[in-house]
Amino acid sequence: MSQDRAPMTEARVRRCTPDDAAALAAHVPGARHYAAGAFDRQRRGEVDFLVAFHAGLAAGSAELTFDDPPELKNLSVAPASRGQGLGSALIRYAEGLVENRDPEARPGQRSLTLGVGLENPGAARLYERIGYVRTGHVATTTYTYIDDDGVEHTVTEQDEDLIKRW
Ligand SMILES: CC(C)(COP(=O)(O)OP(=O)(O)OC[C@H]1O[C@@H](n2cnc3c(N)ncnc32)[C@H](O)[C@@H]1OP(=O)(O)O)[C@@H](O)C(=O)NCCC(=O)NCCS
């Protein structure tokens, strides 16, 4: 498994490999079922599924869509690894992929959006600090997920879209 190779001492990000998906599922609380689904979305060409490592362990992830503008979805870092730069590293890596997808873009033509829960001011502060601005557009989303015990949950969230242009 990739967890056992190439020890890493700082936040690193890469596109998810099959081993990385297994490592996320095994070690990140709540990711047992999510990781396989996101990896399938990447395999189908719907997203780039990004994984962040800290001290060699898979500890965070996010999905970059191919929408126009692209969106960073399901950004999450394991509770024990928060506050160590993994969330910021995932966003920076996604911005790099956006640049690679359109190397000819002129300044101001590239953009990336992400949604932040209205009840999540800590995450919103992080995004604003690294250049994302509030759009005032709030969407209500209902989705289901399967927890680590295999129980399905339905959740309704209100998220505000933030966007960065560069
Ligand atoms: C929001 C989140 C992805 C940030 O990841 P992270 O690896 O902790 O982020 P970084 O280390 O790069 O940056 C830390 C900043 O994140 C913010 N933050 C938000 N929630 C946090 C948490 N529970 N713990 C630590 N930092 C948090 C803080 O503002 C912090 O800023 P500071 O350095 O001024 O204190 C992560 O806290 C998380 O997974 N939270 C739960 C799920 C979630 O809210 N996802 C985002 C949906 S929009």
From TrEMBL:
Q: Which residues form the N-acetyltransferase domain?
A: 11-158
The family database entries (SUPFAM superfamilies) matched by this protein are listed as: Acyl-CoA N-acyltransferases (Nat)
Tell me which UniProt keywords the record has, alphabetically.
Acyltransferase, Transferase
An MF annotation (GO) of this entry: acyltransferase activity, transferring groups other than amino-acyl groups
InterPro entries assigned to the protein according to its UniProt record, in alphabetical order: Acyl_CoA_acyltransferase (IPR016181), Bact_Acetyltransf (IPR050832), GNAT_dom (IPR000182)
Note the Pfam families from the entry.
Answer: Acetyltransf_7
Superkingdom assignment: Bacteria
Q: What is this protein called?
A: GNAT family N-acetyltransferase
Q: Which organism is it from?
A: Microcella daejeonensis
